[in-house]
Structure formats: structure tokens, C-alpha cells
Amino acid sequence: MGLSTHVLDTMHGTPASGMAVQFFTVSNGVATLVRSFNLNADGRNPDGPLLDNASLKVGQYRLTFDVKGYFAARGVALPEPSFLDQVSLDFGVAHADQHYHVPLLVSPWSYSTYRGS
After folding, report:
1. Measured distance CA(68)–CA(86) in Å, rounded
2. How far apart are CA 97 and CA 38, in angstroms?
3. Any idea of the CA torsion for 85, 83, 107, 94, to the nearest 10 degrees?
4. In the structure, what pLDDT confidence band is assigned to residue 24 with cuts at 50, 70 and 90?
5. Which residue from 41, 108, 38, 115 is spatially nearest to 75, judged by alpha carbons?
6. With helix as H, strand as E and coil as C, how does the chain read?
7. CATH class of the domain comprising 3-113
């Protein structure tokens, strides 16, 4: 299955439909944009996995989620500056033959992530 992500809006109890996401590879501290996309109605990449099994390589990656933009678009009154703006998750892939799923649970004031299944 390669690499995938899923975002849940814990404030509203829904998938984070429409949230903008950027996906990068990271090498020697330099991030290179692979793709940008908006999450679908289920809070996932509309094109499926970010990388399939053949494309997933051992290395460092980054996902950046536009939390501020998403909640502002939902009509949430945010202070200026907002507590969370862009949430970037840097993570490593040690075993390219395994599935890596990176979920994000997020509100305007908190987030958590883990290696999912």
C-alpha cells in the first residue's frame, strides 16, 4: 500500500474535507515538494496513496497541513495570530516494503499523529 494519510477534524467530529496538504521528500535537511492536494470528503488524498509500494523508498518525508486555512474556511473564529497555522510532520520510512499510514487528528488548538495501519 505504500504511504497514505488521513485527517480527522476533532472539533467537528468529521473528516477534514478540503484541507490543503503538501507532501515533500527530505534529504540532507532540504525539503523537495512532491505534490500538493486538497483532502477529499473522507479526509484523504483524492488520488489514493501518496506513494505506491514501488515508489516508497527508505528515507525522510514531510507532510504539511494547512490547519489555519481549513478552520478559517469552516467559519471558526480564530485569534490573530492563530495558535496553529501550518502543521508539519517530519517522519522516516525505515522499511520500504511496509505500509506507512500517517493520520492527523486536529483541532484549532491541538493535534496528534501516529503510525497507523
Report:
1. 7
2. 27
3. 60
4. very high
5. 108
6. CCEEEEEEECCCCEECCCCEEEEEEEECCEEEEEEEEECCCCCECCCCCCECCCCCCCEEEEEEEEHHHHHHHCCCCCCCCCCCCEEEEEEEECCCCCCEEEEEEECCCCEEECCEC
7. mainly beta
Query: Is residue 1's pLDDT more than 80?
Result: no
Give the start-to-end residue ranges of the domains of the chain. 3-113
Cross-sheet strand order for the sheet of 14-15: 14-15, 3-9, 100-106, 111-113
The 10 Å Cβ neighbour count of residue 72 is 14
Identity of the amino acid at 117: S
pLDDT by residue (tens digit) across 84-94? 999 999 999 99
The model carries a pTM of 0.96
Query: What pLDDT, in 10s, does the model give residues 53-72?
Result: 999 999 999 999 999 999 99
